[in-house]
Amino acid sequence: IVSDITKAVVDAGGNVGDSKASKLGSHFALMMLVSVPQSNGALLKEQLGKMSSMNTSCFETSDPKSVEVQPKIAYSGEFTLSGADNPGIVHKVTSILAKHDLSIDEMETSDEEAPFGGTLLFNMTGTVSAMHPLASGFNVEKIRDELINLGESLNCDIDLEDINTTGKEASAA
Known about the structure:
This protein is an alpha+beta fold.
């Protein structure tokens, strides 16, 4: 799939910039920022649309690196969850994050059989961010407490660790 799509990009005189690919079950998803001469944009869309057994969507954008992103990120964190699977668990966790104006930048979920006992364990990881200026009353410890309390009620461990762009711990309260 990646070879076929990147061939279409190259054939249209383009180049692949940032990309992200993932396999989920028997499905494969690919997102790419590509640059092609403006005169070949329609050709690329047409070629991608002709690929069999695939659904494609193309969106024209300006160069995302040519514009300074505003506002700036004021808080970044990594959340993890591990424990018993419960209906609605993703919704419950993400509702707490949304209530505190945290945006999910990345998220991954999976389940696995417990090593002993055969019960199903659920895992969730992701990164969140809040833009500058932080909302009045933004308090990371309060968010952590809410997540921990939710985890205790669902028989799982939920944590939110502060991070910054260099990967070192940061603090925001």
